[in-house]
Amino acid sequence: MRKGFKGIVPKTVDEYLELQEPEIRSALEKLRKTIRSAAPKAEEIISYQIPSYKYNGALVHFAAFKDHCSFFVVNKQLLKDFEKELQPYKTSGTTIHFTPENPLPATVVKEIVKKRIIQNKSRL
Prior knowledge:
- By secondary structure, this protein is an alpha+beta fold.
- It has a single domain, classed as Aspartate Aminotransferase, domain 1.
- The chain contains four helices and six strands, in the order ααββββαββα.
- It has helices at 13-18, 22-38, 76-81, 106-122, and strands at residues 43-47, 50-54, 58-64, 69-72, 90-92, 95-98.
- The protein has a six-stranded antiparallel beta sheet.
- A hairpin with a 2-residue loop joins β5 and β6.
């Protein structure tokens, strides 16, 4: 099992955020708030040792790394759908990389989360 920052494995999103440096924590707290406003009924959990949101299945995830943060959107098509808006960011697979100095726009995050909700509902 991979250990979190300082050898601690967080059990909640609050614990995960508390382990981050203040600058990173602030950026991730804003992302968390945006996700929760777009998906108020989503379950917030730690999965794969990172903050995750579930609503009729996996919705989105985020994480902090040494030199960037990541927003995992679970569906590759979304990166194509938002290609123009995501030009300032590095993307790979289903992941968008960002930094506290260049955070993701809340409007884009909300649109992505809402599309993920629709995608998950359509699979039911």
